[in-house]
Design brief:
heterodimer, A: about 650 residues, alpha/beta, six-stranded mixed β-sheet, 12 strands, elongated, B: about 240 residues, globular
Chain lengths: ~650, ~240
């Protein structure tokens, strides 16, 4: 634990201490200017990494937010005579609001469309800054003088320290955010937006909040930029900068504060280093050697595909030999950038820091932080006494869902009683999945009512339905594959997080205490389904059976009133099937009402109190499992020519007799 | 027909298969059963070239294919009907089937005429697909999609077919239908390697079976022997 803390925090502390000490030794104003720019770009790229890395969206608007922040600060200083702190706050407020306004419509879009929406925002901003001459000074630019702060006029050295201090504060705040429920939500919504909503986390609100926060950091960087250069020009904040910033994040490594910092260093320092011939040759030579070494090693160990190993060698090779042909490397700056980006994107898809962090943690064997002892299960999942009278919990009244002319669910009424395991069976295409999707809010019903405890259930929103007390699993598994088993459960955990819901409180680090509690609770639920020893394993590395168990643990973490299980036994082999039945039974014994869609008839017979049989979107039979199995319509439409009764196992004897 | 010798394969750094050896003789149906995570699907994927094995041999008709790309292996006559069906949802049923006829792809002209007999054969096997030939494949029910996946594999006139969990997510009555089809294909002389969770059903159609445990073959034998094997009985046949 101590070793982990020392290594990780130690690296951060020593870097900042080193950077802070530079001006004491180096008096060169040029170097100081570069390092100030590094701090400003650090803030900017950490902000950009929120959307590019954590939200997984290509964001081409960060340069615009830098410009908006810079101009806001500039105008505050020149027109309103604001001091530095007030101007910075104003810059952040303006970009926060504009970021949210941009995010609200455009984050409903996917992939390239989102990138285009942000690109048009950049175009709009650049034009507005240029044309609104009465406000911005137009193409002539805007001059300002750095105002004093608390009566103290900052010398370049003081301003450098100030920028570094802000970078450190932003760093710490983002670390707090990423280690909280928010950080997990960001990871989760990239892996499975549907499950994020179904677990009541709320995909959209997290995306918008994250994007607005990243934009506000862009605004802060903009204000610092304005105070640093003291002269603003609208042409600065256009596409070229946008692309270079994106390069910085990708080169440095997404989803990493260090990555953003390394990216900032590359973006801020590299253009200047490149103009120095010797340095350029050194950098390209080292890059060439590294790519050869990494490529050969990757090929030998078969961890890299051939093109991944060879392409970076070719690109850096071109860089080295091209260097001899070119007189002035600065003229070729963009081409050099392009080649470097190409090598990194192909050879190290995780960026420089993504590669280095894996390497360093193996080198130093950084141990994982220990887990707390699991909470008592009764606290996490209080057993609710199941009254024998079993009142109606969930009621469907004449629910319909049509797709064009296809009547997938066609006037269906049924009631689920509290504490029951209610089976739902029927042939493929009978409307089971559609019904589940309607009840859980994924689809809006064409007509009809759905009541939970007599109250109408929100319709057409997975998120709202989840909040109302309905949890579900998915036929085709919707785990947060990049998160560990423990984090999957923590992401869905209900009733632990209070402070962590508020973004400002999380940023200043007040969410920590709740994290420990959440770990303990989630661990208890993992042990409940028998996955206690797998807590640290990424969900994607679990066996198929364990993934099915984990999905149930995650849904139970919602403390739902109704738990809908969509084919929880599909694809499970016999031993896993038995274990899954045990899990479902024990969840039910804790008072959770379960709706179970399943094809395995012995699972249905072994677990269900009541079974409803669907065909053609309508109920064709309802009753106890035994009653249903003898029902002639059910045999005809569903079970086939198997003898009704105890012999109706999921293994049809038919092929042998055919 | 198909010989797999000491096959090792995995994803990234984790090795899933640790030496799988099995043989499928011409005209037989061989079943591969075992617990989840034992490596059945990975074996299938390694045989058909979807992942490349790190060690070991795959011989198709005596020729090594373990280092070939999946598309090459498919052209050599090995058709893989993957787990979860993986049909082309937005395309029509008929287009899905025609895509399976990659054997005919060099014939740019008269492609459809050349594929017609195969198409008729599939429609004879699955009359339901003929009824729905113009419908988008994604709108079919699960059972029909499974039939389409098998039909698409057959369009290539394969020498051997790999069927991965044809019963997954299907109603009992449809499972019976799918297995009747498999039995019919077997009677027509098709060679098949079958992965299946319903071990009893799989053993009912198979001539020989392998039981996988943790990345290797644990038990093998004719279905009758396996049914008598206490260990197999307890773990897989319930």
């Amino acid at each position: 634990m101590l070793k982990r803390l020392l290594l990780i925090r130690g690296a951060e502390l020593s870097m900042f201490a080193l950077l802070a000490a530079v001006p004491l030794g180096v008096k060169n104003p040029y170097v100081l200017g570069l390092l100030t720019l590094l701090a400003i770009y650090g803030v900017l790229l950490i902000g950009l990494d929120v959307s590019v890395g954590y939200l997984g969206q290509v964001n081409l608007a960060q340069a615009a937010f830098l410009g908006l922040g810079a101009y806001t600060a500039g105008i505050c200083v020149t027109r309103l005579q604001f001091g530095m702190p007030a101007s910075m706050l104003a810059a952040m407020a303006v970009t926060l609001v504009l970021g949210a306004l941009l995010a609200l419509p455009s984050l409903r879009l996917q992939g390239p469309q989102f990138a285009l929406a942000t690109l048009s925002f950049t175009a709009l901003t650049a034009t507005a800054l240029n044309e609104l001459e009465w406000l911005t000074g137009g193409a002539q630019g805007l001059s300002l003088t750095r105002p004093p702060m608390f009566g103290h006029l900052f010398a370049p050295r003081d301003f450098y320290w100030f920028c570094m201090l802000l970078l450190a504060l932003v760093w710490v705040a983002m670390r707090n955010l990423l280690a909280s429920q928010w950080g997990r939500a960001f990871e989760a919504l990239r892996d499975s937006p549907i499950a994020t909503d179904a677990m009541g986390i709320g995909t959209y609100r997290h995306k918008v909040a994250g994007f607005a926060l990243g934009s506000a950091l862009g605004g802060l960087a903009g204000a610092l930029y304005a105070f640093n250069f003291q002269y603003l020009q609208p042409q600065t904040y256009v596409y070229e900068l946008t692309v270079i910033l994106l390069l910085g994040v990708v080169l440095g490594g997404r989803k990493s504060l260090w990555g953003a910092f390394v990216g900032a260093a590359l973006v801020a320092l590299l253009p200047n280093l490149l103009s120095n011939r010797t340095l350029f040759e050194l950098i390209s030579g080292v890059g060439f050697l590294v790519s050869i070494a990494a490529g050969v090693r990757g090929l030998m160990k078969k961890t890299l595909r051939p093109f991944q190993a060879i392409a970076p060698m070719v690109a850096t090779g071109v860089l080295v030999f091209g260097g001899f042909l070119v007189k002035n490397t600065e003229d070729w700056r963009k081409a050099i950038f392009a080649l470097m980006l190409f090598s990194v994107v192909v050879g190290l898809p995780e960026g420089l820091m993504g590669f280095a962090s894996g390497f360093l943690s193996r080198l130093f064997r950084i141990p994982e932080a220990p887990l707390p002892a699991p909470s008592p299960l009764d606290e996490v999942l209080p057993a609710r006494p199941a009254g024998k009278d079993a009142p109606i919990l969930l009621e469907l009244r004449d629910v319909k869902r049509y797709f064009g002319g296809v009547k997938a669910v066609d006037g269906l009424s049924m009631t689920v009683r509290q504490g029951h395991i209610h089976g739902l069976i029927g042939p493929n295409g009978s409307g089971k999945s559609t019904l589940v999707n309607v009840v859980s809010g994924l689809y809006t019903p064409t007509a009809g009512q759905i009541l939970l405890r007599g109250q109408p259930l929100p319709q057409g929103s997975l998120f709202k339905t989840a909040r109302a007390g309905v949890a579900r699993t998915f036929q085709n598994l919707q785990l947060f594959t990049g998160l560990t088993a423990l984090e999957n459960v923590m992401a869905a955990l209900q009733g632990v997080y209070r402070r962590s819901r508020s973004l400002p409180l999380v940023l200043i680090g007040l969410g920590r205490a709740e994290e420990k509690r959440a770990q303990a609770d989630a661990l208890a639920l993992l042990e409940f389904v028998g996955l206690g020893s797998e807590a640290r394993r990424p969900a994607k590395d679990l066996t198929y059976g364990a993934q099915r168990f984990l999905e149930i643990a995650r849904a139970v973490a919602r403390r739902p009133e109704v738990l809908i299980l969509d084919e929880p036994a599909a694809g499970l082999s016999h031993p896993d099937l038995l274990r899954q039945m045990e899990i479902i039974k024990s969840v039910n014994q804790r008072g959770v009402t379960i709706v179970l869609i399943e094809h395995h008839m012995d699972v249905v017979s072994g677990l269900c109190d009541v079974v409803t049989v669907l065909d053609g979107g309508k109920v064709i039979a309802e009753g106890s499992p035994d009653e249903v199995k003898r029902h002639p319509k059910v045999i005809e439409a569903y079970l086939g020519e198997v003898e009704a009764g105890p012999a109706a196992t999921p293994s049809p004897a038919a092929p042998a007799t055919a | 027909m198909l010989v797999v010798d000491n096959l090792h394969a995995g994803y990234g750094l984790s090795e899933v298969l640790t030496g799988v050896t099995l043989t499928v003789k011409k005209g037989t149906v061989v079943a591969l059963i075992g617990a989840n995570g034992a490596g059945k699907t990975t074996t299938m994927r390694a045989i058909s070239g979807m992942i490349s094995p790190s060690q070991g041999k795959v011989l198709l008709d005596g020729a090594p294919v373990q280092s070939l790309a999946a598309s090459r292996i498919a052209r050599l006559g090995l058709a893989h009907s993957p787990e979860g069906r993986k049909i082309f949802g937005p395309l029509s049923v008929e287009d899905n089937l025609l895509l399976g006829a990659y054997r005919l792809l060099p014939h740019f002209f008269g492609f459809r005429a050349k594929a017609a007999p195969d198409l008729e054969r599939i429609y004879g096997l699955f009359p339901r697909l003929k009824e729905r030939r113009a419908q988008a494949a994604g709108t079919l029910s699960g059972g029909e999609q499974q039939m389409l996946a098998i039909g698409r594999a057959l369009m290539a006139r394969p020498k051997i077919m790999l069927l991965d969990e044809p019963s997954m997510g299907l109603a009992p009555v449809i499972v019976q239908e799918v297995f009747r089809t498999i039995l019919r294909l077997k009677q027509e002389g098709m060679t098949m390697l079958l992965v299946e969770q319903f071990a009893k059903t799989a053993l009912a159609v198979a001539d020989y079976a392998y039981v996988m445990e943790r990345g290797r073959i644990a038990v093998e034998g004719a279905p009758d022997e396996l049914r008598k094997n206490a260990r197999v009985l307890a773990a897989y046949l319930g």
